[in-house]
Amino acid sequence: MCGIIGYTGDKEAYNILLEGLERLEYRGYDSAGIASIHNNTIQHHKKKGRVANLKLTVLPGKTGIAHTRWATHGKPEDKNAHPFVDETEEFAIVHNGIVENYLELKEELRNSGVFFSSDTDSEVIVHLIAKNYTGNLQEAVLKILPRLIGAYAFCVLKKDSNEIIGARNGSPLIIGLGKKENFLTSDVSAIIEHTHKVIYVNDFELVRITPFSVEVCDFNGTQKPLDIKEVNWNLEQAQKQGYKHFMLKEIYEQQQVFLDSLKVPVKIEKSFSRITIVACGTAYYAGLIGKYVIERIAKIPVNLEIASEFRYKEPLINKDDLVIAISQSGETADTLAAVRLAKQNGARTLGIINVINSTISREVDEVIYTRAGLETGVASTKAFMAQLVILYKLGFFLAGKEIDLTSLTEKITQALSLNEEIKQLAQQYYHYPNFLYIGRNLNYPLALEGALKLKEISYIHAEAYPAGELKHGPISLVSEEIPTIAICLQDSIYEKTLSNIQEIKARNGKVIALATEGDKQIKQIVDDIIYIPKVEEIFYPLIAIIPLPLFAYHVADIKDCDVDKPRNLAKSVTVE
Ligand code: M6R
Q: 573: pLDDT confidence band, cut at 50, 70 and 90?
């Protein structure tokens, strides 16, 4: 949530910061702003809305910081955009996170005569630094850190210096090392065209960068060795490459992701009696499919928890438990907190994580990296595919069985070729304001994921139910005004789902079925149909997961929604 970037070097900072911000925009896009140092003064410019709104005002200077915001405290308005400067405009800061005790700090600062220009929590940081500055910026920052309760990664600069100080507690911060230039960023993608050499800053570390030096110390000021890593992403991954949206590109990348994921070694020590999976959003739905698969194949009980609930639950886990955290970003605050709680309780933790060296991947006892590559669209698609493959492999490994999924590759290609057909279907249905999604067994998590994609990017209300649950209440919603997407594949409960569809049809509900190629029976009942290729029952999710986001994508595109950056959302949810 929120993206920050800092640059100090021998080039003009403005374009580097702006391009970096554009790559960080997935982290929030309520407002954006830049501050740079020129002639010993701080130049700053900030605006409500997208990064593109900054383009008209070019700021000179070779040292600068910038921010793209996902609003927490204070509405998306110009005055609440970062950077924030102190009253004498000597210091500027950008912040990602939440200062939980900001009201108390604000009151204290106000009582000492400080004027606040925003409604944010972040602004207290710059005023505290100004109050505590006695000639050394790093010392001033070290002095105020114990006063900040909450999560943060922030960067601060001073008007007559080319140094940038950064500090991290709970939100991501990465140093990029260049030649005669150095960077600070929330995410590697923002600096990937400038350097592949990075240092992942840990919690409770402070960083000082100048064009020629990088220093890291703990919050007591004790210097730490630099742990430099090489990043193997490339710039193409961060570009749309001819696709209208990242989401569509990423849906199409699923076949490659599938193949790459097959190569991931999935072997863990089997010394646990129970598994608990913790995750949020799409990763949670992947976990739900994982639960079905592991229980069915390996016969090991799997408890599944939404991470934001688990963390406040006093969970009954101990050293005999394996807690699996699933996360694309590896930065989701709730999932991270769940991992920490699991560790406190003595459980062994395993991460199924996409972003290498992300916070969760560094905190879990063991990590299996998914091979989805850089996922930019806020709606998660290819990361879901990668998570599923790993969970299948894990289920089979725990069962002591071999698995060869390569034959599914061509079925995935077939599913992707449904794109045009699905686009036409979207034309037919995009105007409906409500949708129901139903499925049973393994198809229920797919219904949940399909509904999440639709509401997330097209702002259409969509609810998912286990098909058998409709009769316990939701069926009263059924009418010709609410289409149902029914996932009714030829599996062991096919007939049951078919009956549920009949119940909807008997009440004049329109039904689009996701069905198995060759199923003539269902064709006579439903209004529209998307056929996917036949595979073994347990593997249907790997195929069915392609048409569902495609439908959501086309509906959102027809409605002219901002597919890659849906309103109110951010890709990496680093606040509670
Ligand atoms: O990075 P994570 O996988 O931990 O993110 C979890 C959710 O925030 C994420 O899956 C979210 O639900 C997506 N926007 C769904 O498309």
A: confident
Ligand 1, atom 12: nearest CA belongs to which residue? 281
* Residue 569 domain flag: no
Single out the residue in 186, 211, 236 at which a domain terminates: 236
* Beta carbons of 66 and 32 less than 8 angstroms apart: yes
User: Structural domain of residue 511, as residue ranges?
Assistant: 406-564
Q: How many domains does the chain have?
A: 3
Domain boundary, last residue among 403, 437, 471:
403
User: In this predicted structure, which of 124-128, 204-208, 399-403, 529-533 has the lowest mean pLDDT?
Assistant: 399-403
Mean pLDDT to the nearest integer, 199-227: 97
CA of 456, closest atom in ligand 1: 16
Q: In the chain, what percentage of residues exceed pLDDT 70? A: 100
- Would you say residue 472 lies in a domain? yes
Residue with tokens 């593109």: 52
* Co-location of 350 and 378 in the same domain: yes
pLDDT for 168 beyond 90: yes
Q: Is residue 362 part of a domain?
A: yes
**Degrees, nearest 5: CA angle 553-556-561:** 130
Query: Has residue 445 been placed in a domain?
Result: yes
Q: pTM value?
A: 0.82
Beta strand 274-279 with 229-230: parallel, antiparallel or unpaired? unpaired
114 and 163 within one domain = yes
> What's the average model confidence in pLDDT over 565-569?
88
- Give the torsion sign (CA, 462, 463, 468, 473): negative
The residue whose CA has the least distance to atom 11 of ligand 1 is 281
High-pLDDT (> 90) share of the chain, %? 88
What residues are annotated to the active site? 2, 571
Asked if 424 and 373 sit in the same domain, the reply is no
Nearest CA to ligand 1 atom 16: 379
Ligand 1 pocket, Cβ-based, cut-off 6 angstroms: 280-283, 327-329, 332, 335, 378-380, 452, 456, 573
Ligand 1 pocket test target in 335, 364, 380 with most atoms within 8 Å of CB: 380
Instruction: Give the pLDDT mean for 458-475.
Output: 94
CA of 316 to the centre of ligand 1 (A): 26
pLDDT at position 241, please? 86
**What b/e readout covers 318-343, taking b as 16+ CB neighbours within 10 angstroms?**
eeebbbbbbbbbbbbbbbbbbbebbe
Q: Which atom of ligand 1 is nearest to the CA of 572?
A: 1
Same domain, 257 and 231: no
Q: What is the 3-state secondary structure (H, E, C) of 307-323?
A: HHHHCCCCCCCCCCEEE
Indicate if 395 and 439 belong to the same structural domain.
no
What CATH number does residue 301 fall under?
Answer: 3.40.50.10490
**Closest ligand 1 atom to the C-alpha of 378?**
14
Q: Which residues contact 242 (CB under 8 A, 6 or more apart)?
A: none
Instruction: Give residue 128 CA to ligand 1 midpoint distance, Å.
Output: 34
The alpha carbon of 571 and the centre of ligand 1 are apart by a number of angstroms equal to: 7
Check pLDDT > 80 for residue 350.
yes
Give the model's confidence band at 495: pLDDT under 50 very low, under 70 low, under 90 confident, else very high.
Answer: very high
73 with 209, same domain: the answer is yes
